[in-house]
Amino acid sequence: MLKMDFIRENAFFAVEELEKGLKQPLTAIQRETLLTRLSTYLRIAAISTLLVEADTLAFQRCLRQSATARRDLLAEAQARSDATPGRFACASRTEPLFDALAAGEAGLAQEIARHSPRQWSEKDEFEDDFRYADFLHELLLAGTQGLSAGAERALSAFQQCSADTGSTRLAVCEALASADQNAFDLALDELLVERAQEFKDAGVPSHPERFQTERHIFVEGLALLRLAEGRQLRTHPEYRMLPRLAR
User: In the chain, where does DSSP find H-type helix?
Assistant: First the structure.
């Protein structure tokens, strides 16, 4: 097993190299590739730093930088005149959105939502993943004004896509939409059980550093807690894979 301090050191080295690469002349696809990898390694750096040093400020800073890289990727893709979103700009690449929320950067999360595609890219993403992301984007863009027409539309589309699958993430979204405390508690607990089981059932990980960090800290769960609190729902100080230190 990789040691966490080694993972941390390697992640910061990767971040440094990727930042150097981004200063070079690049095609659009090359730049999107590097920005996506940069977000991944900043998330690894964030979690490993929290686990090794208990440094919450560094954790939040790295997550914020990950989200900023994603915001830049999406804004650049949106600005191109020939912009049909490529695979790196798909709405369902939600990890940096969760990074922004977990870091307490609601404004940055809204920027990501604003620049994210509103159309499902059938060849590049699963529909249920897109519908989940689309609802979260609409919920963020509505801010404190309650459930917007856009969020209601996105939730309805998610329900039509996933109602027969018993989707836990759909249950989370429905609970957020209705601000139902009991429903949210049950759905979040189920999501955390599913997440733990995913790591138990995993074979040889394709990305060992992500596996070894994300099995301890569930950034998506941290983000959902932020969204729940924004909907005036109560949350506990600590959950499995969502330690108090990370909040």
Answer: 4-21, 28-53, 56-79, 95-102, 106-115, 127-142, 149-162, 168-178, 181-201, 208-214, 219-230
- How many domains in the chain? 1
Amino acid (one-letter) located at 37: R
| Tokens 């897109």 sit on residue | 130
Query: Which three-class secondary structure state does DSSP give residue 245?
Result: helix
Q: Which domain holds residue 168?
A: 4-246
pTM beyond 0.90: the answer is yes
The single-letter DSSP state of residue 235 is -
Give residue-wise pLDDT tens across range 51-103.
999 999 999 999 999 999 999 999 999 988 555 678 899 999 999 999 999 99
Q: Read off the DSSP letter of residue 22.
A: T
Residues counted in the chain? 247
Cα–Cα dist 166/186, whole Å: 13
In angstroms, rounded to a whole number, what is the distance separating the alpha carbons of residues 207 and 3? 14
Report helix, strand or coil for 239.
Answer: strand
